[in-house]
Amino acid sequence: xxxxxxxxxxxxxxxxxxxxxxxxxxxxxxxxxxxxxxxxxxxxxxxxxxxxxxxxxxxxxxxxxxxxxxxxxxxxxxxxxxxxxxxxxxxxxxxxxxxxxxxxxxxxxxxxxxxxxxxxxxxxxxxxxxxxxxxxxxxxxxxxxxxxxxxxxxxxxxxxxxxxxxxxxxxxxxxxxxxxxxxxxxxxxxxxxxxxxxxxxxxxxxxxxxxxxxxxxxxxxxxxxxxxxxxxxxxxx
Length: 237
Prior knowledge:
Rossmann fold, single chain, alpha/beta
């Protein structure tokens, strides 16, 4: 997993910046009930998305474990950014009207504890809004996708929609809508992906052979199509 204290310095620039953040926040906020007054954003990162999860009467609180991320998030959230482990949130039961998790569950070896914690801090009628199926969103039918397909893991993703829905149901959360948004600036580039393969950050089994084949694709410096991400909402009974 990435060192997010170090990654904080380049995170926004390499993750689509303002356009992607605006699209993500609009999709998420559209699933938050208009009556919500308290919102907790899990793994808020640099706060680029979190600061947009606001409207009249609603101001977000962000939590993250990485100090580097929080240094960037704090001024964006007027100080409402706190260090916390999403597996053990420092909040009482039934505290929030909404809990959001954008690009979090796919990073975890097991999403169950985090979904359980989100459910615990939600009030009755509150909603959990989370991105799902992140890896699948990058399968855009490009030449790059075809090349890496044999190296894609066979195990279900921890953020698979069916998995998250089942976990949510264990805690009284039922499906309550969905949305999509374009991951602006997130189209994968063969040359950059080859670098990550060599560094062992992704498709590690492909090694040098896969990296070389990626670099041999036409226009290896050209990003392929942007992915379209999916967001699901679950309401507490």
